[in-house]
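Write out this protein's structure.
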Amino acid sequence: MNERVKDILSGFFVSVTLINVVMLILGKILGPNQTFGYEVFMYPLIYGFIGAIPGIVISGKKELSVSQVIIRKIMQLLLIIVLMFAFMFGGKPIDSELVTVAIFVSISIVIVFVLVNAILWWLDMRTAQNMTDDLLKYQQKRLNRQ
């Protein structure tokens, strides 16, 4: 499978899992007495897809410096916030309740974004370590045969 597609799918599934947790927490805080139908199960998938769009749009094949990666991640985060706000609040009149929800949503988006990137980084580091270990084992075997 193409490495880029694998990265996007990994990010999507990690995002959806964390979005479920955030929705549970925010629901308990902002609307503890609300009940929903089965259609609510679609929202984490939709939010995960919206969160994946900037990673698809803002990408390149060129190797980036650390500062360029940080700038790209900040741009992705801002784009995710804008897209989420447009999807969630587009066309609604602004009142104090909406502002409160928007603040909680903004904080949640930042937390999910940071956690997703940290988890994906950790998984990549683990994969790199496993590859390094395998390469060292292979080199040791070659040396032992000679």
